[in-house]
Amino acid sequence: MTASNNYRRVGIMGGTFDPIHFGHLVTAEAARWEFALEKVVFVPSGRPPHKKDYRVSDPEHRYQMTVLATASNPYFEVSRSEIDREGYSYTVDTVHEFRRFYGPEVQLFFITGADAILEILTWKDVDRLLKECHFIAATRPGFQLNRLGESRPMLPVEGRHRIHLIEVPALAISSTDIRWRVQNKKPIKYLLPEAVEDYIHRQGLYRPRDCGVYEKS
Ligand code: ATP
Ligand code: MG
Predict the structure, then answer these.
(1) Which domains does the chain have, with CATH numbers?
(2) For 163-206, what is each residue's pLDDT tens digit?
(3) Please, what is the angle between helix 194-203 and helix 59-70, to 10°?
(4) 29 Rama class: left (phi>0) / alpha (psi -120 to 50) / beta
């Protein structure tokens, strides 16, 4: 880690959060601890272009669930920046917005699952992105870290040290699975915070009539 310890450090955790679950929360907390981040800001997405295969829940529902899930952690915040922005949101736009807001003195750390980072690193503006922020990629079950190793030679040399890996406890939790469980009347207890579970049931989210058929991936 070449980052100087004198810099303030802020984590950004982007996601669809449909719904947010303990995989996201454990990852954010692990990153906060390991990289001495002063806080982690959760940024629920607008309507992401790569999730066209199912109807993403209303952004306000996803925002509310994220607020409920993070309320008990004083180091967690939720941003409306992508939800309130017109059109699709890309990580690069969000990082620029954070950079403008915090100024040059703050080091930004974008936290993702290791699967998501492979996608991000194939973008054409990855060089610029790596100048703006660090990446913390969390391993998740079934993901082979060596795939990230293989893609490393394609990365700009000066940016490689800005990609960090952390291991989180093996949480085989995914939002897709939770949606599938609700639709099939299976329990979701202990996969996500109780307040989020209550919200899902109260609002009737992920029921067949609301959302079409979810495929279990
Ligand atoms: P979906 O199943 O709809 O794709 P998801 O569970 O992957 O949802 P996202 O909102 O897409 O959740 O993920 C937001 C970020 O959190 C991504 O960077 C993703 O890689 C990461 N992530 C998701 N689930 C886990 C998990 N169980 N452990 C670690 N990271 C995770
Ligand atoms: Mg995902």
Answers:
(1) 8-173 (3.40.50.620)
(2) 888 888 867 899 999 999 999 999 999 999 999 999 999 999 99
(3) 150
(4) alpha
CA angle, 192 then 33 then 93, to 5°: 75
More confident residue, 205 or 129: 205
**With pLDDT > 90 as the criterion, what percentage of the chain qualifies?**
56
Q: Does 175 contact ligand 1 (Cβ within 6 A)?
A: yes
Ligand 1 pocket check for 66: Cβ under 6 Å: no
| Residue with token string 């009539």 | 209
- Write the residue with the smallest CA distance to atom 2 of ligand 1: 176
72 CA → ligand 1 middle, Å = 21
ipTM over 0.90: yes
The answer to whether 199 and 68 have CB atoms below 8 angstroms apart is yes
Does the beta carbon of 176 lie inside 6 Å of ligand 1? yes
Q: For residue 112, which atom of ligand 1 is closest to its CA?
A: 18
Give dist(CA 98, CA 106) in Å, integer: 10
Compute, in angstroms, the gap from residue 6 CA to the centroid of ligand 1: 31
